[in-house]
């Protein structure tokens, strides 16, 4: 079957799913605003419950006044390498929806739908010759403050976007981990009729 | 710019993002088990926090004993058309992770990461000549029972997968809605430096 990036697909799939991965070695070069917005264009077309489109993105491009501020919301371990990203993005989801009677109700799938949008962003980024690396390691309270995020929004993740650089540019411990990760076999993830996992 | 399915991209993106949509008119024909598992193969390679891979999928193919059981967990409005799917899928996420010291801790991004995996499934489905339609309208407690899902898992969504059929096969109210939906403009979703949405 398809083998790319030392990854082996057990069933035939489009190569983009194996090609996409999350490096840490970035060149730090500038990304044009138009080039960046084109990546969000793909994210925009993701599906969502009742087409609510709960995803929101706050970005900072390398070389702008905003970059250091967004970088400061990441965990220190992530700042070490994400400082060389061409752009940083904080992904937010809208946690509530307004009903037809004007009531504010929790939106059950806000994080799930926003994850779909994130993957569209990740794929288009890869297709455009860039790489995207999402991080759960972000100080979410600080990000809410620094970005001016009102209530009823949730910080889902941060993302570093950039051109891939040689792994030798990374600190030693990260250099060793700079390769596409593997996955669990389908048999641990997919079940017929009933859930029989652990 | 790219225009597909009456959808217009404001920035250049790969056509698959516009081509993918969620129809309700399905033919009800059988899907081979191998063909179905190949769709989950793409879902498997999605990114997740610490590579935890929190996504799980329970499926039932049309014509098997499991199909009616999965169908019964959907809202009645969805059962009307999803009964003609070639396969139904319940998407679960693992809500907790085990720490290095053996402690059970909530996994912040379980729904978000599972949403990414769902979008990989949706795209591969589209690329393989099928269509996928996710539904938030599922009785989640019933699905947990019927599928034998243990605690520390969450029902995220249900999905109908099938070959697209003529809209005339749908009940009148659904027939009128049988077209790709539009999206908010990028300016309502993407912000530089600070969140200035509503």
UniProtKB/TrEMBL annotation, chains A, B:
Presence of keyword Secreted: no
Alphabetical keyword list: Oxidoreductase
GO MF terms, alphabetically ordered: oxidoreductase activity
A Pfam family assignment: Nitroreductase
Domain Nitroreductase: 19-63, 73-163
UniProt-listed CDD domains: TdsD-like
Entry EC no(s): 1.-.-.-
Signal peptide positions (record): none
Family, per entry: Belongs to the nitroreductase family.
Name this protein carries in UniProt: NADH dehydrogenase/NAD
Originating species: Rhizobium meliloti (strain 1021) (Ensifer meliloti)
